[in-house]
Amino acid sequence: MLSTVAVAGYRSLRQLVLELDQLTVVTGPNGSGKSNLYRSLRLLAACGQGQVIGALAQEGGLASSLWAGPRGSGRVALQLGFAADDVGYQLDLGLPQDEGSPFQRDPEIKTEAVWAGPLLRPGTAQAERRGPHLRTRDDAGRWEDRIARLAPYESMIDELVDPVATPELSAVRRLLRRWRFYDHFRTEPGAPAREMRPGTRTPVLAPTGDDLAAALTTIVEMGAPEPLERAVEDAFDGARLRLSAEDGRFGLALEQPGLHRPLTAAELSDGTLRYLMVVAALLSPRPPALLVLNEPEANLHPSMLAPLARLVRAAAATTQLVVVTHAETLAEALLDVGDHGGGAVAGGHGGGAVAGWAEATVPTTHVELTKVLGETIVVGREGRLDQPAWSWMSR
Asked: Where are the beta strands (DSSP E) in the chain?
């Protein structure tokens, strides 16, 4: 499980270090930096695919992604990192040195580090990269030069993957590739999820939800129909999901009390379809290492927020979750489980059984963001010393 994420120099995140729990609920007013936190996590995940440079380019390049406030040292740096129970990783992106290149707007990877345990220290470092030079520790704990020259756009965790010689780098790469993000489900008229579509076994829902019917059918086939039925009945007052497969084409419909026929996906409201997409993401037969939901309440009727909260807490029993939300009602339902025998409170830790779901204790943390002089900070942690321990590698 991830214990800490750290971001420095990214948009409004000047220097932010967060502790993560099994379920972390992120709230805050508009403009407080919630979306920036979400985007920074996506950038960090892109490192595991060797795509962080391209991901930054899609955001407008390094210049538009940097902290816009004063820089005490004058150094241009965008730093990202995480620590899990047994391994950690960070990288530092800066401006390129080759001004004659047609790709001179691409940022360079200045430093990278992988370490064992929750905190980077001289004794825990397992791999270090400064500029083009990379070294790793051997079995005896001695430093060994590995690659004479890494290109400035090449990450060491993507270029040096040897489960035997460098198991920590391989572990970081695998972990980052098992993060999932959902923030833009397509529910407009004519969206792919509203049509009968060709499909195959789909244990992981697409980020846009286009393969919804195939994903839900996979959940049923792989042995989890009861949680799916429960999630639908809980939100839609006794409704039943009907899945169909004809010649490799998959579709869905919803039977509801009082209606003489099921409503097809094309007839469902945006909110109903979006809820089913969240269900498919959370009940995946192949749970991710980390699942991040950005505003899952969008387009949902207020009456559906309590069922959504129960679904999220049930999924958090087996998958580490980060939920970024504008909805106070959803945040309160996720954090305050007193009605179900738990003891979680905003800003603290706790857990409890979720009504209608398997009994489970889910440690939960509330992160409330605000902005002071353009900088995103955590409410109650106005000082640097209030943040969790973290250290950045020097260039």
From this structure: 2-10, 13-19, 23-27, 78-84, 87-94, 108-116, 125-130, 133-137, 143-147, 179-182, 197-198, 240-246, 249-255, 263-264, 290-294, 320-324, 364-372, 375-378
